[in-house]
């Protein structure tokens, strides 16, 4: 398959990252976040669960929230643009109307040009809930679904954003802030770099992140 290469300037764009749990946004599009901020984009990051029920032994219950703040700051996201909810992990589907209303409130407060969120087919119940409500809330914005391959049985790699070595390193550094999650294989620098390399090969670039186009608005 041949892909049409389009130059997108993130300058002046307001992008929102919808992360069901802390670290999902960095895993799915951390290098792109770094690239967009370097180009002058405004980034709002919304995390819906701090996963307090699943924090490993030996860490305080708010450990993942603290790690999230460090990780997003390392990517250049402003403190005032980090929105953190504390819904119970694996139960977001029970409060989906409340989540939708919060997303609409955020949408009305901030002019959003582009949304990054999990894909609609993500098999994790929290991820699919955020994707469904994100699609409803942001009807007038372009939406790209980011890749979390351990939750993706099907993932249509029909969009690629090329990133630099510096962007990949920034993603690795951000994920390194998640001290409590370092044992997970998808957190390793080797995995992050390898995936960025594979996606880069697919689109003829040194490194890239892959996305699924959910809605693309051309103006």
Written account of the structure:
The chain has 219 residues and is of the alpha/beta class. The protein has helices at 24-38, 63-75, 96-109, 125-137, 165-176, 189-203; strands at 14-21, 42-49, 82-84, 114-118, 142-146, 159-163, 207-215. It contains six helices and seven strands, in the order E-H-E-H-E-H-E-H-E-E-H-H-E. Helix 5 (165-176) runs antiparallel to helix 6 (189-203). The longest helix is centred in the first third of the chain and has 15 residues, at 24-38. The radius of gyration is 16 Å and the shape is globular. The two termini are 26 Å apart. The model has no long low-confidence stretch (mean pLDDT 95).
How helix-rich are the residues, as a percent range?
25-40%
The pLDDT mean sits at: 95
Radius of gyration: 16 Å
Give the class from helix and strand content and strand pairing. alpha/beta
Give the low-confidence spans: none
Descriptive keywords:
219 residues; alpha/beta; Rossmann fold; seven-stranded mixed beta sheet; 6 helices; 20% strand; globular
Reconstruct the topology from this structure.
Layout: E1 14-21, H1 24-38, E2 42-49, H2 63-75, E3 82-84, H3 96-109, E4 114-118, H4 125-137, E5 142-146, E6 159-163, H5 165-176, H6 189-203, E7 207-215
Parallel strand pairs: 1-2, 1-4, 2-3, 4-5
Antiparallel strand pairs: 5-7, 6-7
Helix pairs in contact: 1-5, 2-5, 3-4, 5-6
């Amino acid at each position: 398959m041949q892909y049409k290469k389009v130059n997108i300037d993130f300058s002046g764009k307001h992008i929102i990252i919808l992360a069901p749990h802390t670290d999902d946004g960095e895993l799915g599009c951390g290098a792109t976040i770094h690239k967009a901020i370097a180009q002058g984009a405004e980034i709002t990051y919304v995390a819906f669960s701090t996963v307090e029920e699943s924090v490993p032994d030996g860490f305080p219950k708010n450990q993942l929230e603290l790690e999230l703040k460090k990780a997003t700051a390392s990517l250049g996201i402003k403190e005032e643009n980090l929105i953190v909810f504390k819904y119970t992990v694996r139960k977001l589907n029970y409060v989906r109307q409340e989540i939708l209303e919060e997303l609409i409130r955020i949408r009305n407060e901030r002019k959003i040009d582009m949304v990054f969120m999990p894909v609609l087919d993500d098999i994790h119940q929290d991820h699919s809930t955020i994707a469904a409500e994100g699609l409803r809330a942001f009807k007038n914005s372009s939406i790209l679904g980011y890749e979390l391959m351990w939750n993706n049985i099907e993932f249509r790699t029909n969009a690629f954003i090329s990133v630099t070595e510096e962007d990949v390193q920034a993603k690795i550094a951000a994920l390194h802030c998640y001290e409590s999650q370092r044992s997970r294989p998808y957190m390793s620098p080797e995995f992050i770099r390898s995936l960025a390399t594979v996606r880069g090969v697919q689109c003829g670039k040194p490194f890239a992140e892959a996305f699924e186009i959910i809605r693309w608005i051309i103006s």
